[in-house]
């Protein structure tokens, strides 16, 4: 019992540290990448390649004065940044970072699962927490007692409700294919290679890993689009459209409270990419090179693979931001309700039929 | 002892949220009180080993339904003063009557049980965890008929709401 508690405590601290330092890296990376895509230099003053720019920004925000608007609703105004930050940390707890570790401490063999909490309802936990995160934006917009944040908040609640539906529906076929709602089980179900009943095709197909993205490419596309909308990033960033709403829901926040929103946004982005990698790109699966790497290094290879996949997706996020213009509001709603949700429903029925045929054969035979 | 704490802390939050729903002046505060109540109920479900129900509670009630509530409150504006006039005739007496009825029922149970507090924790088989498989197993076998009837009921309600709101006579020239 007590070793379990200690292990959980160590995990919680490590994940907290990882997410915070990772955000610093992520903000710098995004600024550098966007600058490169727009033929600019980007941050290059603080530290080598400007990597300490985010640290400087964070210190600046910490030292700034906290301003509260006169017409603000005090309790909700203070609550909103906290609601933004807590779910973003909790979601990361269910992402499996690697296979179970076998540690030997004081002669005892302890199995440490490399995941904060391996819930058997992990997928639902993720969806539930991302629906809680909507409150932060809505409350921040409303409680500021100002018009632009309110407009941002109303836009946010409509957008996030719309895209959550498509997101949840696109995950159902994945759950059906994996046969479990546990994130670790979903990763394990993707090990091995694809196979085909036709021998000619089998030779080609058997070199492709059995990641969910290959049989579930439509679900992947829907989930990816919905996840970009869910974290309010371009081209779906109407929530904080600078040209129309000043800063959107966080216009009236300053100092560290603004930093909390900023932090939550980037952690959510990282979470979303790690979850996409876990659902569709095989999570931590990948060659461990255990033949020619020392055991310590090859034990970390799964985590490194997850990182590589996550950062590849993050690169696509930044690429999209630098490339695509913002959608109009009616286009956004139309895409969500008239395209993504019907397509995901049709895809759910199709993949259920295929799965049923594979499990039980033809109904008349 | 741990069981008592695990029950008492979320239960206190459930009550606190319910009190906020009743007594707060601002509609947004009322709604957030309801969120607190629903989220704490999810925690109670987890202590009862019903993980799936807890997650659905968070996702559907604390998440989707309450976001829609807040959305509507924000759309219609919250600056209107609360109506203090009685809408239903004899409202106060009806509420008082219900209160007395519930109070006497509770007193009867407490006296009848000989003041045993283990009534708080009815016998629960903690060995079964409410995983999706277990729940789906009993929902789609022994409870399939009520399940389908409820789904029809919900569809009827949704269709009726659309039929009431969508006036075909006035809207015909729009489409």
- What is the CA-CA span between the terminal residues of chain B? 64 Å
Shape of chain A: globular
Fraction of residues in β-strands of chain B: under 5%
Instruction: Give Rg of chain A in angstroms.
Output: 22 Å
Strand fraction band of chain A?
A: under 5%
Mean pLDDT of chain B: 80
Report Rg of chain B: 21 Å
Would you identify the regions of chain B where 5 or more consecutive residues have pLDDT less than 50?
A: none
Q: How many DSSP-defined strands of chain A?
A: 2
Distance between the termini of chain A: 53 Å
Helix content of chain B: over 70%
Q: Treating each run of at least 4 consecutive H or I residues as one helix, how many helices of chain B?
A: 7
Overall residue-averaged pLDDT value of chain A: 83
Q: What does this 3D model show about the protein?
A:
- The complex is a heterodimer of chains A (365) and B (175).
- With 365 residues, chain A is mostly helical.
- Helix content of chain A is 65%, strand content 3%.
- Chain A contains 12 helices and 2 strands; from the N terminus they run αααββααααααααα.
- Chain A has helices spanning 2-37, 53-63, 74-92, 122-143, 147-178, 183-188, 199-205, 217-230, 242-245, 255-280, 295-323, 329-360, and strands at 101-105, 108-112.
- Chain A has a two-stranded antiparallel ribbon with strand order 1-2.
- In chain A, helix 1 (2-37) crosses helix 10 (255-280) and helix 10 packs across helix 11.
- Chain A starts with a helix and ends in a 5-residue tail after the last helix.
- The relative contact order of chain A is 0.13.
- Chain B has 175 residues and is mainly α.
- Helices cover 71% and strands 0% of the residues of chain B.
- The longest helix of chain B has 26 residues, at 51-76.
- Chain A binds chain B through residues 73, 75-76, 79, 119-121, 124-125, 127-129, 131-132, 134-135, 138-139, 141-143, 150, 153-154, 157-158, 160-161, 164, 181, and chain B through 26, 28-29, 32, 35, 39, 51-52, 55-56, 58-59, 62-64, 67-68, 70-71, 74-75, 78, 129, 131-132.
């Amino acid at each position: 019992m007590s070793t379990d508690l200690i292990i959980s405590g160590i995990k919680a601290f490590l994940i907290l540290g990882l997410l915070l330092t990772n955000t610093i890296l992520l903000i710098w990376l995004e600024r550098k990448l966007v600058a490169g895509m727009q033929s600019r230099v980007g941050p290059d003053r603080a530290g080598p390649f400007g990597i300490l720019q985010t640290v400087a920004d964070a210190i600046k925000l910490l030292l700034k004065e906290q301003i509260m608007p006169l017409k603000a609703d005090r309790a909700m105004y203070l609550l909103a940044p906290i609601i933004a930050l807590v779910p973003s940390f909790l979601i990361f707890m269910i992402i499996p970072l690697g296979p179970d570790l076998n540690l030997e401490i004081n002669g005892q063999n302890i199995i440490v699962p490399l995941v904060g909490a391996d819930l058997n309802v992990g997928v639902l936990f993720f969806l539930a927490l991302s629906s809680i995160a909507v409150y932060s934006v809505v409350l921040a917009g409303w409680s500021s007692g100002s018009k632009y944040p309110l407009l941002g908040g109303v836009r946010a609640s409509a957008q996030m409700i719309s895209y959550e539906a498509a997101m949840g529906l696109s995950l159902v076929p994945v759950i059906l294919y994996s046969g479990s709602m546990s994130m670790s089980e979903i990763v394990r179900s993707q090990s091995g290679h694809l196979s085909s009943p036709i021998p000619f095709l089998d030779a080609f197909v058997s070199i492709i890993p059995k990641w969910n993205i290959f049989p579930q490419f439509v679900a992947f596309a829907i989930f990816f689009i919905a996840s970009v909308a869910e974290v309010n990033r371009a081209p779906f960033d109407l929530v904080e459209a600078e040209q129309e709403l000043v800063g959107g829901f966080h216009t009236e926040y300053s100092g560290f409270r603004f930093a909390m929103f900023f932090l939550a946004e980037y952690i959510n982005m990282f979470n979303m990419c790690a979850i996409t990698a876990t659902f569709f790109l095989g999570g931590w699966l990948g060659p461990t090179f255990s033949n020619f790497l020392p055991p310590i290094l090859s034990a970390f290879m799964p985590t490194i693979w997850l990182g590589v996949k996550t950062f590849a997706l993050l690169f696509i996020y930044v690429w999209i931001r630098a490339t695509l213009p913002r959608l109009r509001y009616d286009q956004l709603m139309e895409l969500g309700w008239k395209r993504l949700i019907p397509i995901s429903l049709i895809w759910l029925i199709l993949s259920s039929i295929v799965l049923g045929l594979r499990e039980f054969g033809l109904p008349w035979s | 002892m741990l069981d008592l704490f695990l029950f008492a802390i979320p239960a206190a939050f459930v009550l606190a949220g319910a009190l906020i729903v009743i007594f707060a002046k601002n509609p947004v505060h009322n709604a957030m009180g309801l969120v607190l109540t629903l989220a704490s109920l999810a925690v109670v479900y987890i202590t009862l080993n019903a993980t799936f129900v807890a997650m659905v509670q968070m996702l559907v009630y604390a998440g989707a339904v309450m976001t829609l509530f807040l959305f509507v409150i924000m759309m219609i504006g919250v600056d209107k003063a609360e109506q203090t006039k009685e809408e239903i005739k004899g409202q106060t007496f009806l509420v008082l009557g219900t209160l007395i009825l519930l109070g006497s029922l509770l007193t009867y149970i407490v006296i009848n049980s000989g003041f045993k507090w283990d009534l708080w924790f009815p016998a629960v088989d903690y060995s079964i965890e409410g995983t999706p498989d277990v729940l789906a197993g009993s929902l789609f076998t022994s409870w399939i008929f009520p399940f389908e009837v409820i789904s029809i009921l919900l569809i009827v309600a949704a269709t009726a709401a659309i039929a009431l709101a969508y006036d075909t006579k006035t809207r015909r020239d729009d489409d």
